[in-house]
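Hi there. Long-time user, first ticket. I'm pasting a complex I've been working with (about 550 residues overall). I'd like to know whether the download I got is complete or cut off, because the file seemed smaller than I expected. Thanks.
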Amino acid sequence: MHFDSFSDFIAMGGHAFYVWWAYGITFTLLFTLTVVSVRRKKSLLKEIAKRAQHEDKLKQMRKDKKTNESKT
Amino acid sequence: MSAPQSLSYRQLFWQVMHRDLKVAVHNKGDILNPLIFLVIVITLFPLGVGPETNLLTRIAPGIIWVAALLSALLSLERLFKNDYSDGSLEQMLLSPQPLFIMVLAKISAHWLLTGLPIILIAPLLALMLHMEPLAYPALMITLALGTPVLSLIGAIGVALTVGLKKGGVLLSLLILPLYIPVLIFATAAIEAAALNMPYSGHIAIISALLVLALTLSPFAVSAALRVSTN
Amino acid sequence: MWKWLHPYAKPERSYQLASTLLPWFAISSIVLLVIGAVWGLAFAPAELYQKEYYRIIYIHVPSATLSMSVYMAMATAVLISMVWQLKLADAAAAAMAPIGATLTATALITGAIWGAPSWGTSWVWDARLTSYLILLFLYLGVIALHNAFEDKALASRAAGILTLVGVVNIPIIKYSVEWWNTLHQTATISKLSAPSMSSEMLWPLLTNILAFALMIGALTLIRFKNEVLARNAMRPWVRELAAKVGDK
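Hi, the file is complete. Here it is re-exported in full:
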């Protein structure tokens, strides 16, 4: 261990501001990218499901129409 | 044209270029607006940074080149726009003639209409900005070699965005980064000339950029046009 | 020889492969990131000339070196898609652009923060910095072009052309900026390029580079899967996956 105590470690020899800013921004950016990428999958699948349901509905309606027409 | 196949490459080149020039002569605004824009941008700088002669002498090459870059960007947008909207671009892509030649002809026409006027007006602008007299030849040479590169690289960006509704801002994002080498070498050459130092090395590099752009850009433009008209 | 590769040209197979690979990449990158960060921040010795702020190197160097590699990987994917008409390579290229942009931004920001105490200024128009700024613009252009087209396949072809043009330009930009810098005689930064690093400092750095590379791999896999789903939305296997999510 390079530092004598935990508070020394946080202080970074008086340069805490720079070191922690740099690490903070880097990991925030990368974390945000990860979260956005992971969430995108769910929203994508939901969109696709919605579109599929919509198409199924259309198909059903067409079928109903046909059967109705054949009845009359 | 009864037998289009019999056109030689040279004839094809001249025909396409002639057509573009004729269209441009009809709407004179297309030629004049970028030029007026250039002059206005140049006028804004002394107003912004102050009229001190020394300062203007020092920054003149940079101002002229940045203004030339922006005006090229402004004029590029309509390089393929009309052809795209009236369908003649699709005709061009479908025709049996080599697309490379036609694209090159269109870019040449664009340069004649926008690059050449910049070169002709440049000495006047340099005078207004009190540019070092020694640097005038360098300014002319860099503009003569550099503005074709601007047209050639810019054409790639235009070809990629011609089918999009909001292509304007996107175009600047796509091509301005690619313009940076030309800007750097051109202004460096002019600055070297102003200090009475040799600048043939810079000129050689700009020439190399021109050759590279001349050979590669029409291919990229052709590929991009095929994407855009899809 | 290439026969074993063929099944993976099918979107479904490569989606499954990406799913099986993802946990390995994700776990190993997280573990290595924690090790590298703690090692670099707390255990590596102090640098001779610079004070503790030199520890920014452990994130700055990995993101800077890898942001360029991601561009080359993206260009390779584009080339593969153009030469062999492999649509999946397009998905990979589209997946990588935002990752590269984030890394380039990270490299620039950490560099600026590092520059403040060591050079006394956050930004100098130095060759390296300027060319990375231009690299960021290239990435942003590619991303913007991807988003500009409604049709994903079309967007990929357009962005692919721009990516390849950018590859031609990256060395030109690099050298032009270097020349420009020497001509203007800006501050020389020799302090940074220490002749040789001690192994105590080098090991955490290498750990972090590997960790970042694995993290890029994991992110690429996540985004690649998304791209595959988006591009194959009409296929039955995607519909099945979507139906499972929709039921919940």
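A couple of notes from our side: The helical segments of chain A are 6-11, 16-71. The CA atoms of residues 21 and 34 of chain A lie 20 Å apart.
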